[in-house]
Amino acid sequence: MLIEESHKDVPTKADGNGSMRTQPDLFHLPTEYHKKFTVDTNSVVYTGIFLFHPSIPNYPRARFPGVVVFSEIYQVTGPVARFARQIAGHGYIVAAPSSYHEFTGPEPLTYDVEGTDIGNTLKIKKVGGHLAFRCAFDKRVAAAVCYFATDVHSHSLGEGKQDDSLERAGDIKGEIIMIHGKSDGHVPPEGRDLIRETLHEKGVCFSFYEIAWAQHAFIRDELSKGRYDPYVSKICFEMLLELFSRTLRSDLGPRAGGEQKVENVC
């Protein structure tokens, strides 16, 4: 399927009236980083959104479901854009927002020590690391796929590093897939166990996959430090497509009822 690409700057309305840029707290980073984030705190914030739209010749009124791709800590990099194009090519309008719009422009951070330090600092301020998970709290979200979501188990994001993501897991009304590498040091075994147990307790409709030998960011096909696994990435992408084809492409109506009783029949 052909894809059209564009970029939109959308004014944010987090407070209902339009948000203003803020100066991020970078006190523990080297001073040479600070100049990148000297912002006009009187200016309205615009969220840069990269759009990937399927296009079918002779079908100008074609309608497609929408998917939001939240990037890793480096914003919309080459690997993130390629991932978004893959999804769009299967018949979805994909929007990839620049997550740090309150602090900086839409340009991606670099895959190096400086970019990593800045990204990790801003993700705490932004409650990044598991934005797809938090997005699923919105009852309008029919499905979510979370690749190696960090900090869900540790409550270590947001002001004071006391986010409420795990406590709010019961707000997830759509279906969700959690994908983790068993060799991902960001989410240790006890952390994965806590997430899985909590999702069960909260009655969330979910699938949970732990992939042997996979590390953090194993789907990144650029500067992955030897972690990229194309075969496993393909399998995970097929799981994403299966979920989206059931929950987004078809109009099934609202999900009703609780858990289905399954008979143990041989």
Describe the structure concisely:
The chain contains six helices and seven strands; from the N terminus they run βαββαβααββαβα. With 266 residues, the protein is α/β, with parallel strands linked by helices.
Widest beta sheet: strand line-up: 1-2-4-3
Q: How big is the Rg?
A: 19 Å
Shape: globular
Poorly predicted sequence stretches spanning 5 or more consecutive residues? 15-21
Task: Give helix % range.
Answer: 25-40%
Determine the number of helices (DSSP H or I, runs of at least 4 residues). 6
User: What's the story with the biggest beta sheet?
Assistant: 4 strands, mixed
Distance separating the two termini: 43 Å
> How much of the polypeptide forms β-strand, as a percent range?
15-25%
Q: SSE order, as H and E?
A: EHEEHEHHEEHEH
Overall structural class, as computed from helix and strand content, comes to alpha/beta
- Average predicted confidence as pLDDT: 86
The total beta strand count reads 7
Task: Kindly describe this structure.
- The chain has 266 residues and is of the alpha/beta class.
- The chain is 25% helix and 18% strand.
- The protein is built from six helices and seven strands, in the order βαββαβααββαβα.
- The chain has helices at 31-34, 78-88, 113-126, 131-135, 189-201, 230-249, and strands at residues 2-11, 46-55, 66-68, 93-97, 143-147, 175-181, 205-211.
- The strands form two sheets. The protein has a four-stranded mixed beta sheet, covered by helices on one side.
- The longest helix is centred in the C-terminal third of the chain and has 20 residues, at 230-249.
- The chain starts with a strand and ends in a 17-residue tail after the last helix.
- Mean pLDDT is 86; it is low at 15-21.
